[in-house]
Structure formats: C-alpha cells, structure tokens
C-alpha cells in the first residue's frame, strides 16, 4: 500500500513545514510578487509554488531552494528559519493602526521640543 509523505512525518515535522511555507509566502507577498511570477522565475509550476507555501511534504528541497532564490536572492534556508525578513517587518509596520484622534493642546505642548 502506497503511503503519502504527510503520513510518514510526525506532527512536529508537519508543523515545521507549515511554518516554513507560511514564512516564504509572507516574504513573497511583502515583495508584491504573484505566485505565477515566482513560478516562472524559479522554473516551477504555479501549483508547485502553492504546495511549497502550504507546507506540502512531497516537495523536493531543490524546488524550495529555487523558490527561495527568487523571493530572497542570496538568502539561505538557515536565514529564513532564524532571521526576520526586513521587507515583511516594513510591511507589517506600514499596516499597523495609527492614532485615530488628533492630539490635544496639552499633548502637543508635552511633545513640543
């Protein structure tokens, strides 16, 4: 009976793959790249790019590395796992909620240097 890669991995390993896929997808989205564009540049199918981002266990490591080279040139797999992506951080800070009310006169005086 044939078994899938998903069945052969522990739940911890599946969680690691899902985290890697989510991290790679965030990097791609922060750079405003479409899955189809990444697929063409990495010589992958769009379906394979989707599977990488969804943490599919059946994807070859070489395909993940080609994907990574397109969205974060020069970065290693270790960089993705250990370091925050500056582009993702910038996008998150730009999307943070901002002050909704104007400052009062007293608050303006307190901030006046």
UniProtKB/TrEMBL annotation:
User: InterPro entries this protein is in?
Assistant: Cro/C1-type_HTH, Lambda_DNA-bd_dom_sf
**Disordered: annotated segments:** 93-113
Q: Name one GO molecular function term.
A: DNA binding
Give every HTH cro/C1-type domain span.
Answer: 24-77
Pfam families documented for this protein: HTH_31 (PF13560)
SMART domains in the cross-refs: HTH_XRE
* Basic and acidic residues bias (residue ranges): 104-113
Name recorded for this polypeptide: Helix-turn-helix domain-containing protein
């Amino acid at each position: 009976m044939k078994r899938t890669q998903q069945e052969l991995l522990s739940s911890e390993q599946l969680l690691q793959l899902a985290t890697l896929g989510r991290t790679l997808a965030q990097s791609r989205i922060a750079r405003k790249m479409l899955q189809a564009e990444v697929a063409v540049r990495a010589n992958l199918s769009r379906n394979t790019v989707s599977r990488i981002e969804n943490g599919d266990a059946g994807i070859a490591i070489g395909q993940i590395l080609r994907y990574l080279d397109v969205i974060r040139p020069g970065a290693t797999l270790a960089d993705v796992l250990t370091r925050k992506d500056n582009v993702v951080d910038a996008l998150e800070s730009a999307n943070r909620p901002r002050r909704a009310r104007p400052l009062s006169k007293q608050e303006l005086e307190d901030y006046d240097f």
